[in-house]
Specification:
30% strand; 22% helix; alpha+beta; 6 helices
Length: 348
């Protein structure tokens, strides 16, 4: 009986090892594919109030640890965000992997937290210059963030040409870009319907309807146009029609429009004038980012300008001295002033 039990325990142990090795291979392959980032986003990006750094980072999986403790460690990409604080005079390494402090020690002061924020993310190349970020802020906090990259410039507020209707440009839930906290969900977004020289702006409202490929219509000057009834953005569904209806609501008058002076490609249209992030093509490593931080933080802000500008006013000190000559009280005051420091006339 004891021999049987020992044999059973040995079989269970062998099965356990086989299962762990299988899981190791599976999750190792999964982590390699899931953590790989598109080449186009890698490097240092600069915005008006921050630097953002993307790199492929992987944590190695220890085989023995998995077999013994059954703890699977997967590769994780963590976003690196450096804020331009104090009007850009100080760069704060606010969000980064904890192990980066071993490469470059973090400053300790009132502007920098003791421990950096940990924000995980992934990014998929959707094709046609469009990418989708998934930002993970916490255990139950995830947010989809679409972005367009044109000539090493990243835009988060853009329109994408519809695959079925070339005149229709689907909008996105315009975001503030790469953030370290979850962004507020917007209740409305817009799509554009372009003709030869006109643009119809169509409003879409957030809904809890299931997404469908249904079409909605609107009329203008006895002509009927078709658009998508539903669009998706940042994982949310938006609709331009009421309930089961198929008529576009709250249609606005069209505006004159041309693509000639707009930022656009075959599939992306950008109406904003300022980019969200610009790639630093000559800097693409964490060491380069640290050099940017150190160079900026070594600078000292110049002193404030004088309240009153310099002037060539003649104070007539000789007349003042003549008036004070026989006044003993004033002379005593002047003596104390000399002991304390020079007077204004001593600088002339």
């Amino acid at each position: 009986m004891q021999l049987y039990n020992n044999s059973k325990k040995s079989d269970n142990k062998s099965m356990k090892k086989i299962l762990c090795i299988f899981l190791l291979i599976f999750f190792s392959l999964f982590s390699v594919f899931s953590s790989e980032l598109p080449e186009q986003i890698l490097g240092i990006w600069e915005g008006q109030d921050r630097y953002v750094f993307f790199e492929n980072v992987g944590n190695p999986v220890d085989t023995e640890d998995i077999v013994n403790s059954e703890n699977l460690v997967q590769n994780q990409n963590k976003i690196i965000v450096v804020f331009k604080t104090y009007y850009g005079w100080y760069l704060d390494r606010f969000a980064e992997p904890a192990e980066k402090s071993q490469i470059q020690k973090r400053d300790r002061n009132n502007a920098t937290p003791k421990n950096p924020l940990q924000v995980e993310y992934s990014c998929n190349d959707l094709g046609n210059d469009i990418y989708n970020f998934e930002i993970i802020f916490g255990k139950n906090q995830k947010q989809q963030l679409p972005a367009a990259i044109i000539n090493n410039v990243m835009y988060f507020n853009f329109f994408q040409k519809d695959s079925k209707n070339p005149n229709l440009w689907n909008g996105n839930d315009f975001s503030k870009g790469i953030q370290v906290s979850e962004q507020t969900q917007k209740n409305k977004l817009q799509c554009l319907y372009l003709t030869e020289n006109q643009c119809f702006t169509i409003d879409y409202w957030l809904t809890d309807m299931d997404f469908s490929d249904s079409l909605a219509t609107f009329e203008y000057k006895n002509q009927t146009y078709q658009v998508n009834k539903h669009v998706k953005s940042m994982g949310n569904v938006y609709t331009c029609a009421m309930g089961k209806g198929k008529k576009v609501r709250n249609l606005k008058e069209p505006q004159l429009f041309t693509l000639q002076d707009k930022i656009h490609t075959e599939n992306v249209l950008v109406l904003q004038t300022e980019p969200n992030l610009v790639k630093l093509v000559d800097k693409n490593t964490f060491e380069d980012l640290i050099q940017i931080v150190n160079n900026q933080n070594s600078k000292r802000k110049p002193g404030p300008k004088p309240i009153f500008p310099p002037s060539d006013v003649d104070w007539h000190w000789d007349l003042i001295d003549l008036l004070e000559k026989d006044n003993q009280i004033i002379q005593q005051v002047r003596q104390r002033q000399k002991e304390f420091g020079p007077r204004a006339k001593d600088f002339q």
